[in-house]
Specification:
This protein is of the alpha+beta class and 245 residues long. The protein is built from four helices and 13 strands. The protein is 25% helix and 34% strand. 27% of the residues are buried.
Length: 245
């Protein structure tokens, strides 16, 4: 059990150090939440009591609508749950002169909640060494005309100008735009034409404005038509309040 505990504390240390923390105190409630659940997982054994405790912990994660992996030991679950919770609640606030400012929401493209095209591909210079690649490809094996990626549970404050920064690589001609939708809106908020990076392993960032958004839980959809070799390899996106507009 001591080996598991050592791995647990290493995982927790990595988690805390990975917060984009201008100030670690800004995320203290989230850290306490993850620490509590992770500590429970670290104590799990194969005993009946341990299995009952595991069931209770997993029920808590179901309450947060996070899918529980079937395989993996307790330490694996710590890493998985910590990552999932961070991605879902990656909104942070900081206090300055009694005013709360939003530091944004970041998510990796390779873990969509729904998708009709693309696949995970290992790429050395991607932020997590993986991308959502081949989005959307026309080839002998895939006759898709178009495809989309959907990401849910994006909680934002009210903002007059919601910005999005897309990190990507592209080694194909700029032909088809990337259409970005918010929630169930019929009209896209943006048509994004991504420039070539001249290598699938060379990345650029594209920033655009999506307009006003209300406070609450939202979804964002990326749609495009297919082209040979795909429109782009998509790495990550970051939503933020564009105060320069």
């Amino acid at each position: 059990m001591s080996d598991n505990n050592d791995q647990f504390f290493r995982q927790l240390g990595k988690l805390i150090s990975s917060f984009p923390g201008k100030s670690i105190t800004t995320s203290i409630s989230l850290v306490v939440f993850i620490f509590t659940i992770s500590w429970k997982l670290a104590k799990i054994t194969t005993s009946p009591a341990g299995l009952r405790e595991l069931a209770a912990v997993e029920a808590a994660y179901r309450d947060h609508s996070i899918e529980i992996p079937v395989r993996g030991n307790a330490v694996d679950k710590i890493a998985y749950f910590s990552k999932a919770i961070k991605e879902k609640y990656s909104i942070e606030t900081t206090q300055s002169n009694s005013k709360t400012s939003w530091l944004g929401f970041k998510r990796e493209f390779e873990y969509p909640d729904e998708s009709t095209a693309g696949k995970m591909i290992s790429t050395e210079n991607a932020s997590s060494k993986r991308v959502l690649g081949e989005f959307v490809v026309i080839n002998d094996d895939n006759n898709s005309k178009s495809g989309y990626l959907l990401y849910k549970n994006i909680i934002t404050p009210t903002a007059n100008n919601l910005g999005i920064k897309i990190r990507y690589s592209k080694h194909t001609p700029t032909m088809e735009p990337l259409l970005i939708y918010i929630d169930d809106e019929k009209e896209p908020r943006a048509f994004v034409y991504l420039s070539m990076t001249h290598s699938w392993n060379a990345f650029l960032e594209h920033t655009t404005n999506l307009g006003a958004i209300s406070a609450g839980n939202h979804s964002i959809k990326f749609f495009t038509k297919a082209q040979k070799y795909g429109v782009a390899y998509l790495d990550s996106f970051w939503l933020f309040e564009d105060i320069e507009k």
